[in-house]
Amino acid sequence: xxxxFSLLLLALIVFSSCGDVKKLQYLQGPLDSTKYxxxxxxxxxxxxxxxxxxxxxxxNPTASAIYNLPSSGAVGMxxxxxxxxxxxGNPSYIVDVNGNIQFHGIGNVAAKGLTRQQLATxxxxxxEAYLKNPYCQVRFSNxxxxxxxxxxxxxxxxxxxxxxxxxxxxGLAGDLTPFGRRDSIMVIRETDVERKFGWIDLRKTDMFNSxxxxxxxxxxxxxxxxxxxxxxxxxxxxxxxxxAFTIVSSLAVIYSILTR
Length: 260
Prior knowledge:
- The chain has a domain at 51-140: wza like domain (wza like fold).
- The protein starts with a helix and ends with a helix.
- It is of the alpha+beta class.
- Strands 8-7-13-10-11 form a five-stranded mixed β-sheet, covered by helices on one side. The protein has a four-stranded antiparallel β-sheet with strand order 2-3-1-6.
- The protein has helices at 2-24, 61-65, 76-79, 116-126, 166-172, 227-258; strands spanning 51-57, 83-84, 92-94, 100-103, 107-110, 135-140, 144-149, 155-158, 164-165, 185-190, 195-200, 214-215, 220-223.
- The protein is 32% helix and 22% strand.
- A hairpin with a 3-residue loop joins β4 and β5.
- The chain has six helices and 13 strands.
């Protein structure tokens, strides 16, 4: 009888464990690697408020040096000069509310809506009258994403590579907790004119085709709690109330004994 009871208990544990694992798995079901071989990536577009590191090169390094910001450049967000110093310490140009930057030798340059390479080509073209064979390197100095909700380490994360997927962002945040919903990850994406909302189901392979799989600068990822978290919270509330009631009752008994 003991052996039968032990086998039944073991079977119950195994089946319950399998159910739990299934709920926590990413990319469930068969994966067609051919179907998702192509990477659907949209390069981030420059938006007002972005910080851009711009370095100019040419055949004459001395001549091109005057078009590069000094390391001790002024912070443009304080004085509106169009250049600034991000947290990394690298001098950068701030894209103003109209989507422009002020570049030495060229003046006002419209940057909003361009990719980094498009802006680099535009600046290099404007410098051809001053430099021999100029070319530029443009990078985001403040490419960051925010991950909130049921993750191990909710925070704002700087992304030096300027390319990050929702899976990588969740990895930076220490993965989802067991209470995080994997079927409805919310992504909030803002530009200067609109706010978009996207939802990603981490259990399904078609998430690779989502426009929100690769994050843009300043995206916010929110992981909502599942029903188990709500139930756990309710249980904790009941337990705390019961504990408080027990303490109050005990104090009342002690008081009654001492005042007899």
